[in-house]
Specification:
469 residues
């Protein structure tokens, strides 16, 4: 049973969770501990419940981490659901919490179809039947827009934009979307309505659309089953993994063409960007455009990652959303995503100018400043929310008078430009953080082919002129 110890400090109340477990290898009891903090505004009853749930989950995690392989493989009658829990616990230790979020999401979808089967009884026909059902999965998508009169509705309740920014923890970028009549997600809309103490449907027009999942998402659900059964093979519970393509039809992932700016759109976008007065907006978007970094990587950038003397950037963390844990700071997407790249002098100069602005702002805030170490920040120094970068890119498109492009489209544009400029694919893949060069050639096949055609034309001109002479 986990021990819960309440502690009161300068930063508020926290709870120390301790679990004692026997380490068979050492032949003695060991104690593992962690800390849990309640969220602001929670009642005493809510704190007790949430803390107990957290403690039980931590206890289960610790106990599972000290189980031996013999414990796991001993149960030949284990169900898929029970084995999936063991697989998930081990995967979290190996790949971290971001992997847990996606894997847990996949398990929620597939366990109702296969969780009750004993692993030893799962055949290729059973797996194929489950895969066929997965292919028919559909999801509810919320399309939410603020009502046209939302400002008046809020004003009558004594609520304005300034109050929401200063007195609540709602994200500035998302607040801006609401006040500009833009679409928002269900999670933020619900949170906003709760803060305003009003009904969701009084503030927003909500439409629910039922649509199929993307092929990549369906394949991810199937891969959860494959990975659990692969774990069963490693534990010698079964001899074969019937979720492999050798036995079943997994389905091909449809590669969507990448969306990039053409030369005219890029010129308009850049001309609009360099005229933006907000220096953080300008430099953050410029960093994305000139490096091809992912949104989470830009938001995860720290000052220590920038080598001004060498003109290099170390990309070693990502600040992005996990299905289970919200916005978290984590390692990049893959091992290859942890990389060091050279940056153009144009960007280096912009970052130097921005650093001067940053230092002045930190000095102005004094003791109220939060030392996050982050390059791109909220008003008080805390790390910027990824939604802000999305908003800045969208607003730049508006200023440029071009159709809207996503943050990831800037990454695609950067990579496509390199390929068209005949930068070696190995170099392009390395700068992009792709695990394999084949990822680069597959995703950007059109631009590789165009570059290849250009190379053929160059050879034709060279050797054609030799023949003519």
């Amino acid at each position: 049973m986990a021990t819960i110890i309440k502690r009161e400090g300068k930063k508020g109340i926290s709870y120390k969770i301790q679990v004692a477990v026997k380490d068979v290898g050492l032949g003695k009891m060991v104690t593992k501990s962690t800390t849990w903090k309640p969220q602001k505004g929670m009642t005493e009853k809510e704190i007790d419940t949430a803390c107990t749930v957290f403690a039980e989950a931590f206890e289960k995690q610790v106990i599972n981490s000290y189980k031996t392989a013999e414990d796991e493989k001993g149960n030949v009658n284990i169900t898929f659901k029970a084995l999936s829990e063991k697989w998930l616990a081990r995967s979290v230790k190996l790949y971290g919490v971001s992997y847990e979020g996606n894997a847990s999401q996949g398990l929620e979808k597939v366990l109702p179809l296969i969780g009750g089967y004993k692993v030893k009884d799962i055949s290729a026909s059973i797996v194929q039947s489950v895969f066929d059902k997965i292919d028919n999965f559909r999801k509810e998508v919320y399309v939410i827009y603020p009502k046209k009169r939302i400002k008046d509705i809020l004003y009558r309740q004594g609520i304005d934009f300034v109050w929401l920014r200063k007195e609540t923890e709602l994200n500035d970028a998302s607040l801006s979307l609401i006040y500009n009549g833009k679409r928002v997600g269900i999670k933020f809309a619900t949170m906003f309505a709760e803060v305003c103490k009003m009904d969701l449907n009084r503030l927003f027009d909500v439409t629910i659309i039922n649509e199929p999942y993307a092929s990549a998402t369906l394949k991810r659900f199937k891969m959860v089953i494959y990975n659990v059964l692969a774990y069963a093979v490693r534990l010698c519970i079964v001899d074969r993994n019937y979720a492999s393509s050798e036995y079943v039809d997994i389905g091909k992932r449809q590669q969507k063409p990448v969306r990039c700016m053409d030369e005219q759109q890029l010129q308009k976008f850049y001309e609009a960007l360099i005229k933006v007065d907000n220096i953080q907006w300008r430099v953050a978007v410029l960093t994305t455009l000139l490096t091809g970094m992912r949104r989470g990587e830009v938001c995860g950038l720290n000052w220590e990652d920038i080598d001004f003397a060498q003109g290099k950037l170390h990309i070693q963390r990502s600040y992005s959303e996990s299905p289970r844990h919200g916005i978290i700071l984590k390692e990049p997407k893959t091992a290859k995503s942890n990389r060091v790249i050279a940056i153009p002098e144009l960007l280096l100069q912009a970052l130097r100018e921005y650093k001067e602005w940053y230092d002045e702002r930190r000095e102005d805030w004094g003791d109220r400043w939060v030392e996050s170490g982050s390059v791109f920040i909220q008003r008080n120094g805390e790390r910027v929310h990824p939604a802000n970068l999305k908003m800045w890119v969208s607003k730049t498109c508006d200023l440029a008078g071009i159709e809207h492009f996503s943050v990831h489209s800037l990454r695609h544009t950067n990579i496509a430009i390199q390929i068209m400029a005949h930068v070696p694919i190995v170099t392009v893949a390395g700068r992009a953080g792709h695990s394999r060069t084949s990822t680069t050639t597959d995703v950007y096949a059109y631009y590789v082919q165009s570059s290849d055609k250009s190379a053929a034309n160059t050879l034709d001109k060279i050797f054609g002129s030799i023949g003519a002479s």
